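Q: I have two molecules that I believe assemble together. Could you output structure tokens for the complex as a whole instead of separate predictions?
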Amino acid sequence: MTIEAEGRDVSRLDRVQDAPLRLGDREFESRLIVGTGKYRDDETMVRAIRASGAEMVTVAVRRVELDRSKEGSILHHLDPDEFFILPNTAGCYTAEDALRYARLGRAAGLNEWVKLEVIGDESTLLPDVHATLEAARILVEEGFKVMAYTNEDLVTALRLEDAGCISVMPLASPIGSGLGLVNPYYIREIKSRLEVPVIVDAGVGTASDACATMEQGVDGVLMNTAIAAADHPATMARAMRLGVQAGRLAYLAGRMPTREIAVPSSPTHGMLD
Amino acid sequence: MPLQVNGEERTVPDGLTVRGLLVHLELVPELVVVERNREIVDRSRYDEVELEAGDRLELVHFVGGG
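A: Yes, here they are, computed for all two components at once.
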């Protein structure tokens, strides 16, 4: 039994049961999705991804290096039978570019899924939500399964769901920042209002961030830099896997209410004279 | 014949098909997606689509990304 399955089957503890993560027509045991960028080498990447337990990984579409053909496709290192490959539109600043990259990704022939990302500002890498929405509508029309990266704005999230996205992916904080979950309230609000799975994408820095994010009740977390830029990526990947599981279990467990005053845990009666 | 491949001017043998170009460049056709003059060439047609002088080609594949 995988650790994910073991983590999900907590019924023998408390009759609390989790379901797999359902995205489109597929099910995933792991609620952690990881990126494949920024690793110091391919071997480190593969080891970290295996340690993360992720079943879905994101990839980017880029020009082939014509004079260094040996440094080929990432598919030389990641077997699409082992990992579900999610092509992204990272680096696109217009809806038109995002459509072009999404179509190229689909033409690779693995699947019709896309992580849609349209950036609106170079210094914060915050999304252009208007362009994202415009591209999402067209891609859904063309039969894509769209997982849309967006900011933590409820109204945009609702519109993306209306557009037919199979998942809405608000950020925890800016891409690559490692600032963690800056707006838990907005993330909870989005989760409570959407029917499609909510995956928090970008900004997680360490395992406690992953845990705190999952504690909000979201369906999953997507991260890249937090693992790739750690001193020991595979070890951080393992920490993230456990952090995501811990956060999910804590959410399912139903946390105690917070109080402004202390309440003793031990009996106040039966004390000695 | 002259082609523009990934933004670079290249001279390749006349009459190459898409597959012929990929083989000429020592690429694995199964891992490369080809856009010819802004239109994606379906992989099942790599053998039949003949390139013409001046074609603008983008050859892309999957790389690491988040």
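A: One point stands out. Chain B has a mean pLDDT of 95.
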